[in-house]
Amino acid sequence: MGTQLVENGSFESIERKPLRGADVFVKALLSAGVDTIFGYPGGAIMPVYDALCKCQNRLKHILVRHEQGAAHAAEGYARVSGKPGVCLVTSGPGATNLVTGLADAMMDSVPLVCVSGQVTSSMLGSDAFQETDVIAVTTPVTKWSYQITDASEIEQVMLDAFSIAVSGRPGPVMIDITKDAQLEACKWNGKLKPRFVPKLVRRLPAEQDLQDAAALINAAERPLILAGHGVLISKASGVLQEFIEKSGIPVACTLHGLSAVPTDHPLYAGMLGMHGNYAPNVLTNQADLLIAVGMRFDDRVTGKLEAYAPNARVIHIEVDPAEIGKNVPVTSALVGDARAVLEKLLPLIKPKQYPEWLKRFKTLREQEVKEVIEAATNPGSGEITMSEAVNVISEASRGEAVVVADVGQHQMITARYYRFKHPHSFITSGGLGTMGFALPAAFGATVAGANRPVIAIIGDGGFQMTLQELGTIAQEGTALKMVVLNNSYLGMVRQWQELFFEKRYSEVEIKSPDLVKLADAFGIAGRKICRRENLKEAVNEMLESEGPYLLEIQVKKEDNVFPMIPAGSAVDQVRLK
Amino acid sequence: MEKQYNLTAFVDGGPAVFLRLAGVLTKRRLDTDELSFLRHAGGNYRFTAVVRTDSKTINTVVKQVRRVIEVVDAYAVELKEPENVYEFQSNAA
Ligand SMILES: Cc1ncc(C[n+]2csc(CCOP(=O)(O)OP(=O)(O)O)c2C)c(N)n1
Ligand SMILES: [Mg+2]
Fold first, then answer.
1. Does residue B68 sit within a domain?
2. Which residue, A84, A488, A489, B68, is most buried by CB atoms nearer than 10 A?
3. What average pLDDT does this structure show over B73-82?
4. Strand A402-405 to A426-428 pairing
5. Considering only alpha carbons, which residue of chain B is nearest residue A141?
6. DSSP H or E segment with residue A183
7. Do A436 and A72 touch, CB atoms closer than 8 A?
8. Given a cut of 90, is residue A62 above it in pLDDT?
């Protein structure tokens, strides 16, 4: 056994014989191809940390400042690398601090493998020190969870954990390991196979279903493609682009679908949903066919369901059968991986053009430019607006960056005004809308080695939720570019209070510390600007800086994000002001 | 229209899976008449729920139950009034 480990080169310095559960656990990480862990140690996970220090050269552990940061960093890492993000925490508070990140990853289909230590199995249920029923707490917010109480289970369960996290519709997995299981002597098998295989294979739709869907597409007069996160997860942007170019069908993206199609593509119709673009929202309700790819008709996309797409048949291409027919009835369900299904469908599609239909998009686009975009991105005088700041960042980075947005007005503005050139360029918390997500997630994205600059765009509120991760960023020397769009408000909530609660502002004013001084305290370069004439130059200075950099931009305090579909309204009731 | 359904799932896993399966129902606050988790001879479990809901909801719920990793198979059947009711006949008459 010892010789086998030496052959694999993974445990050169392990002298312990026999191996313990903790050693086998680390070996399981290595054989799953893990190279980075985000974590925080504590009593119940100490044997694993002890085993980790024997292979630091192969497995980089990044010490975050709060376990929530570990979870979001792992999400950012996963979304850039396509590999599962791995978190390691102690029992009790270590595990409960992960919960927000697990819920976030569950909602946004992000593969995570999170592992917590647990009290010794003989003490389970006794309210022992730092005992929390982690499985019960995390079950509703995970794709799979399992408690290991016996070292002999570790290798198999970790194999399962990784295959479950990435397969089908990806998601977070929680593994809880009791301390005795970590300490117990055990063997490495090396020949195990993942269980639950039937659950893990990606199916393809039947030939007849593909033919039927193609017939619907070929007969449509006003078709619209809705591209979601699934397009990016399955790496289908290439074939999607071929598909739209051959079929001539315009495409709109959900928040998570952004960057699947370059923003300047002639058939790109913009973003769907509450703060999306005018044309695709209005025209959803005029379309006679919606082709939904890797999206789940979230309520932020559909608005009032009863009034959604009344004239359209729906083709739903989706890997998770439970999403089909959940919100919107479908004519044709193509269950499968988005890329595989599009590849199958492509040869069945007739080349076509829709000049009259595309003209409607153009007209509404021009109206949105005139009534919203022009003034937002080019206000000329007065305070800097968020939209012009994002516009400048987009120009200065030439659309080449990986952009990570937090949650709030600045998020919607970033989604609207950053002009993406490459797929996998936009990361945000969509389903859960987790303030505090962006800083750690952007850090994780940087760790994944994006090979492109990573820019985090964060509100003054959200920044103060996870700013402790500046410590991690500083310690790792990560060249993350952080932009805080400071409006001195919880802007999105303020906007709702203005529009829907007769401007009764309730607890939305928020003071920030001196962020440049704060960054400086962490040894991070920073700058604050308030005036338009400094904007471009400051953004360039940030982009040209070597290490981490924080740019605070003081923006207009009371500004609203438009267009907007008020909650509960139909998509074509979208307001321009 | 609300109907009564018997939802059954066969589970290759332990009692912790009960929590996850029950959660699929409780998070929707489905009107539930019965919930059970029974161990079979082979060691696997059978999850049963009797719920009142509409056909669209039960359809999605069955798919959400099937999506649970340890679930081998799941289905729901509509419970109807039995056609033949055998009444107790007293011999004493
Ligand atoms: C953890 C969390 N708490 C509360 C909310 C509700 N919420 C959504 S947007 C928002 C305001 C965000 O303020 P800020 O970060 O300053 O961004 P802005 O909208 O001003 O751009 C709040 C409080 C949330 N999404 N997440
Ligand atoms: Mg703000």
1. yes
2. A84
3. 90
4. parallel
5. B20
6. helix A179-183
7. yes
8. yes
Q: Which residue has the tokens 């360039």?
A: A540
Residue B60: which CATH number? Answer: 3.30.70.260
pTM of the model as a whole: 0.95
Alpha-carbon span A417 to A386, nearest angstrom: 10
Contact yes or no for A98/A87 (Cβ under 8 A): yes
DSSP element (H, E) containing B4: strand B3-11
For residue A9, name the pLDDT band (cuts at 50, 70, 90): very low
Question: Considering just the CA atoms, what is the radius of gyration of chain A in Å?
Answer: 25
Q: Is residue B7 part of a domain?
A: yes
Domain that holds residue B29: 3-78
Q: What number of H helices and E strands is found in chain B? A: 2, 4
Residue A26 phi, psi (nearest 5): -65, -40
Is the CB of residue A461 below 6 angstroms from any atom belonging to ligand 1? Answer: yes
Q: Mean pLDDT lowest for which of A23-27, A196-200, B38-42? A: A196-200
Percentage of chain A exceeding pLDDT 90: 94
Residue B86 lies in a domain: no
Task: Check A325 against B60: CB less than 8 A apart.
Answer: yes
* Whole-number Å distance between alpha carbons of A14 and A24: 11
Kindly state the tokens that stand for B46. 């059978």
Q: pLDDT tens, A341-391?
A: 999 999 999 999 999 999 999 999 999 999 999 999 999 999 999 999 999
Among A492, A554, A562, which is best to mutate for testing ligand 1, by the most ligand atoms less than 8 A from CB? Answer: A492
Residue B1 pLDDT: 85
Question: What 3-state class would DSSP assign to A247?
Answer: helix
pLDDT at A451 over 90: no
Tokens of A536: 């471009």
Residue pair A372/A562 in contact (Cβ under 8 Å)? The answer is: yes
Of A307, A282, A308, the C-alpha closest to A360 is A282
Ligand 2 center to A469 CA (angstroms): 19
Residue A295 is which amino acid?
M
Assess whether pLDDT exceeds 90 at residue B90: no
Helix, strand, coil distribution of chain B in percent, nearest 5: 25, 40, 40
Please report whether residue B60 resides in a domain: yes
Asked if residues A378 and A542 have their Cβ atoms less than 8 Å apart, the reply is no
Tens digit of each residue's pLDDT (9 = 90 or more) over A315-327? 999 999 999 999 9
Total domains, chain B: 1
Percent of chain A at pLDDT above 70?
Answer: 97
- How high is the pLDDT of residue A6? 36
- The residue among A527, A530, A529, A502 whose CA lies nearest residue A516 is A527
Render pLDDT for B39-73 as a digit per residue (tens, 0 to 9). 998 889 999 999 999 999 999 999 999 999 999 99
Three-class SS state of A105: helix
DSSP lists the bridge partners of residue B74 as: B9
CB contacts, 8 Å: B20 with chain A: 139-140, 145
Instruction: Give the closest of A135, A144, A326 to B69, CB-based.
Output: A144
**CB A196 to CB B70 under 8 A?**
yes
